Amino acid sequence: MLLSITTIKGQIGIKTTNAYLDISQPKGEQSIRQVKPQMLTDRELPKVLIDQSQPFAEAGRKPWSQVAAEYAQLGRQQALEGIARIVDDGNRMAMIQKKVPDAIPEIAFKNSMPKQNEFNFAMIPTSRPKIDVTGHLDIQWQLGGVEYSYTPKKPIADYRPGKVDIYMKQYPKTEIRFIDNRV
User: Fold this and answer.
1) Burial (0-12, 13-18, 19+ Cβ within 10 Å), 62
2) Is residue 136 part of a domain?
3) Which of 34, 106, 115, 165 is the most buried (most CB within 10 A)?
């Protein structure tokens, strides 16, 4: 008696589907705005003011109001000096009663003599003109800058998971046959 044993091994089949991942990043939104700097100016053009009245007055070129005031003062001073001289002469003549000798010849001699004048030498003008400068320049700066904003976008992802299918490609099998040689 003969036995024939045949075995077939079992086979596993594996079917895989790869995972898929696709990521894309859309561009975000950004805005940039530049603010320009500003220069603010406040100005008054310069003016030069020259007052030459004092040097002109020293050189004899005076305004009429000043000349009139000076001559009025000079006239008053000379009138007061004349009155004082006449009073002195009158008081001297009043002393004749006290027998003061020679009062009239002395007064006559004093009035007949010329007054002694003084002379000075001076360079004119002796003072400088007054010079004033007016005007201004004021500069104010307002600094500029950059206004920046950025809004990111979410990434777009496409994902398909991988898959593994395991199946039986061939089931195991054992065949046992009886072989009869008699036949």
Assistant:
1) middle
2) no
3) 106
In a domain, 81, yes or no: yes
Domain with 101, as residue range(s), is: 60-123
Packed helices 64-94 and 103-112: angle between N→C axes, nearest 10 degrees = 160
Tokens of 127: 């003072």
Q: Give the DSSP H/E element, type plus range, for residue 44.
A: strand 38-51
In a domain? residue 11 = no
21: part of which helix (H) or strand (E)? strand 20-24
The structural domain count of the chain equals 1
DSSP 129-140: PEEEEEEEEEEE
Predicted confidence pLDDT, tens digits, the chain (183 residues): 677 888 999 999 999 999 999 999 999 899 999 999 999 999 999 999 999 888 888 887 888 888 899 899 999 999 999 999 889 888 888 777 777 667 777 888 888 888 777 877 777 778 888 999 999 999 999 988 899 899 999 999 999 999 999 999 999 999 888 887 765
- CA dist 172 and 89 (Å) reads 174
Q: If we measure between CA atoms, which residue out of 145, 154, 158, 146 comes closest to residue 29?
A: 154
